[in-house]
């Protein structure tokens, strides 16, 4: 009888529970596939969550990078000013399922060249983009994602080189009129930013996550429907002042130059078909896709020190 009751309850579970995750990220022409929630399918710079469901406790450590997110195996190469193109999808297939609430993007420095293994506990995050309502003041940017658009965010023009976690967060406000109802969907992508810029955010511009949000913030405990024309005040810190600084005076040196004289060795990442592929970055025609197998990071050759340090 108990089993029957459970079965009936399951049948009547609301379908509105569909959620989602980041399936892939495109940076400077390179596509990085993510893993679906709870399923390891291959190396990725996108930290894999264990479920497509939201974080709802603003004090939970999962607020940093999503439910159960652990370190990922790769770092995606980016430059100051790179556009990061992020694809959000539904966990049950198809487009991202929600439309009400902001899309926020943060960075934190991993403190060394690689974010592989970086623990977000105590990390200082700074805001680089806030997307709320569209120009009509009623619809949300998130609605564009639901309708199939990817989300684009531009890295700071003067961002100093190094390892960074990019935290792109959709907040679902569809149930936010009751305490604990807001749904946070953070997703973290490990970046290796190259170049010769010098910008780092003042500590004043950084926050802890969890720490920056409270369940009773007017941007988190909010009825987004009763007055749809109301302007929305973003949670978290303002856009970091780093975003207002001019770009580095000299253009970013080509990544290819960084290792042109090394042994010939393509860079490994995950290709559009979800397979591990490689591009020969010494070619200006990159990406050139060549199937390969990662040779591991233990070897002491120069290319391995430079590449595997952030690829493996
Ligand atoms: Cu959902």
From TrEMBL:
GO terms for molecular function: hydrolase activity; metal ion binding; monooxygenase activity. Its cofactor is Cu(2+). It is an enzyme of class 1 (oxidoreductase). This is lytic cellulose monooxygenase (C4-dehydrogenating). CDD domains: LPMO_AA9 (cd21175). Its EC number is 1.14.99.56. It comes from Postia placenta MAD-698-R-SB12. Residues 19-232 form the Auxiliary Activity family 9 catalytic domain.
């Amino acid at each position: 009888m108990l089993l029957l009751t459970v079965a009936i309850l399951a049948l009547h579970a609301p379908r509105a529970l569909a959620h989602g995750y980041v399936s892939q990220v495109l940076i400077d022409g390179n596509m990085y596939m993510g893993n679906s929630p709870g399923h390891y399918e291959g190396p990725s710079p996108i930290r894999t969550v264990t479920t497509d469901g939201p974080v709802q406790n603003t004090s939970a450590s999962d607020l940093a990078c999503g439910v159960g997110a652990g370190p990922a195996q790769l770092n995606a190469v980016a430059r100051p000013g790179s556009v990061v193109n992020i694809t959000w999808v539904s966990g049950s297939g198809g487009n991202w399922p929600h439309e009400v609430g902001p899309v926020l993007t943060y960075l934190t420095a991993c403190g060394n060249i690689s974010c592989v293994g970086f623990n977000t506990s105590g990390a200082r995050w700074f805001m680089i983009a806030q997307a709320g309502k569209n120009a009509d003041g009623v619809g949300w940017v998130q609605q564009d994602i639901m309708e199939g658009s990817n989300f684009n965010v531009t890295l700071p023009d003067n961002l100093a080189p190094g390892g960074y976690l990019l935290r792109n967060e959709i907040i679902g406000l569809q149930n936010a009129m009751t305490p604990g109802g807001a749904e946070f969907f953070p997703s973290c992508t490990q970046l290796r930013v190259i170049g010769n810029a010098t910008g780092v955010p003042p500590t004043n511009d950084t926050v802890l996550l969890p720490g920056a949000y409270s369940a009773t913030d007017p941007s988190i405990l909010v009825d987004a429907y009763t007055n749809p024309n109301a302007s929305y005040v973003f949670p978290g810190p303002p856009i970091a002042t780093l975003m207002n600084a001019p770009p580095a005076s000299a253009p970013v040196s080509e990544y290819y130059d960084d290792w042109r004289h090394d042994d010939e060795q393509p860079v490994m990442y995950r290709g559009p078909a979800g397979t591990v592929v490689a591009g020969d970055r010494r070619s200006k025609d990159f990406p050139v896709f060549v199937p390969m197998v990662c040779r591991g990071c233990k070897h002491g050759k120069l290319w391995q020190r430079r590449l595997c340090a952030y690829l493996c």
